Amino acid sequence: MEIGVRVEAENLKTGEVRHAASAYLTFVAIDQQGKPAPVPPLVLETDEERRRNNDARSRTAMRLAERNRQAQCKQDSGACKQ
Q: What is the pLDDT of residues 32-73, one digit of tens each?
């Protein structure tokens, strides 16, 4: 599951809040043997939830494509273009 994280910094004297960092973190459920385990599907109820879920799926697909590209490069360096 991908979780979006937003970190904000607050100036305690002025109360000013500013964006400090954002990231997407990926978590994997594991079973008692330490292997990845299935989890119930998300219940997407709003258009915003559906949009965010679609965006996450797109990021996952891009990460997997890049991982596959890197693996191919390791097998056949001539197939990689820098």
A: 999 999 999 999 999 999 999 999 999 999 999 999 999 988
At 13 the pLDDT is: 97
Report CA dihedral (13, 14, 17, 20) to the nearest 10 degrees: -50
Alpha helices in 1-81 (DSSP H): 47-75
Closest by Cα among 30, 33, 51 to 42:
51
Closest CA to 1 of 17, 25, 21: 25
**pTM surpassing 0.70?**
no
- How long, in residues, is the chain? 82
Which residue segments constitute the domains of the chain, with CATH numbers given?
Answer: 2-79 (3.10.129.10)
81, HSE (Cβ side, Cα atoms, 13 Å) = 0
